[in-house]
């Protein structure tokens, strides 16, 4: 997006504000489907937790994507956005049988990731088709919080427990229609993907009524100039060959599924914040912005790198800054970062702010969550208003006990 458009959006809607470029989401979706154009049936289920605004879900639906959901509320949001429940897969972890049954009743594809629930669900609802999330025990992912496929992970059913899965399936007579894995986010090496895929194919051979194999997600996107990313095109070529061979041997054209979040929306997002104060200490120049870990927690939570550009002064002399928030604890977005000279009231743009940014925002320090804007066909559309004091107080209950000045004795 052009600096001038970002500045105009900050001026019109105020700061801080999230902006999403629809064209980037569309081009990423096309890139992924193009990479698998030689597979007969490909299904992309967008991972709602990355960015769950209804406008984004509607955009995904219009592209032909389904949704990958991890809570009943995400399922409900998808249905509100007009997505057919048949195009939603539900992949929860540590969720109650009751919630899984409720989602199943809505016509959503269920994906089960533990033996206990598999046995209970299969016993009660043997006719409902179920997908199984296996854990291939592959160490992958950019950091320990998002590496979810290794041996001690809480996700998925171990591939060493396949005999137990088969026993449950035979005893209950349940119908397994899909096999799934999701090994983590930020995977760089396509060989890791391909290795895990082989394990998935081996697993799939045990089930005779499959409709799909879901390879999860975890594609890495570039976070800075010159950054490496998953080579989707090469990956597509290699996995296509393997998948088509598998289908031939299996005797049926299966659907090849993916459920990317970050890949589809990360680069489409910009977070705009205003510089409240430039503060020089003995060692550092701080740029303090009108936001903090309450709005964008990835740098503090995951040590994530977000490019920061001074859209108000893009040709200014470069200097080193620490960009920090206004929260009353250390909330550092960047240290020793070269940025074009920053003055108070400048607008800074954080890149890669589409995935896991607004969706992880909170009201910490009783601050409002910011507005969201969709940039579509050269026009800015407000898709979420900034919160107000009412949003902070609306669920609180005044019990009237302390309405008079009380003297404690
Ligand atoms: C979070 C999640 C995804 C999306 O991961 P990205 O790294 O954003 O692509 C996909 N599938 C499942 C089951 C997830 O929990």
Q: How many DSSP E strands?
A: 18
Structural class: alpha/beta
What is the C-alpha radius of gyration, as a whole number of Å?
23 Å
What ligands are attached or bound here?
pyridoxal-5'-phosphate
| Gross morphology | globular
What is the fold's blueprint, element by element?
Layout: H1 3-13, E1 17-21, H2 22-35, E2 42-47, H3 54-63, E3 66-69, H4 72-80, E4 88-90, H5 97-105, E5 109-112, H6 115-124, E6 130-135, E7 157-158, H7 162-172, E8 176-180, H8 190-204, E9 212-214, H9 232-250, E10 255-258, H10 262-265, E11 269-280, E12 285-289, H11 298-302, E13 308-310, E14 318-324, E15 332-340, E16 347-350, E17 371-376, E18 379-384, H12 389-393
Helix pairs in contact: 2-9, 6-7, 8-9
The structure holds pyridoxal-5'-phosphate.
Task: Provide an overview of this structure.
By secondary structure, the protein is of the alpha/beta class. It is 30% helix and 23% strand. The chain has 12 helices and 18 strands. It has helices at residues 3-13, 22-35, 54-63, 72-80, 97-105, 115-124, 162-172, 190-204, 232-250, 262-265, 298-302, 389-393, and strands at residues 17-21, 42-47, 66-69, 88-90, 109-112, 130-135, 157-158, 176-180, 212-214, 255-258, 269-280, 285-289, 308-310, 318-324, 332-340, 347-350, 371-376, 379-384. The strands form 2 sheets. Strands 1, 11, 12, 13, 14, 15, 16, 17 and 18 form a 9-stranded mixed beta sheet that branches. An 8-stranded parallel barrel has the order 2-3-4-5-6-8-9-10, surrounded by 5 helices. Helix 5 links the parallel strand 4 and strand 5. Helix 2 crosses helix 9 and helix 8 packs parallel to helix 9 (232-250). The longest helix has 19 residues, at 232-250. The protein is globular. The structure holds pyridoxal-5'-phosphate.
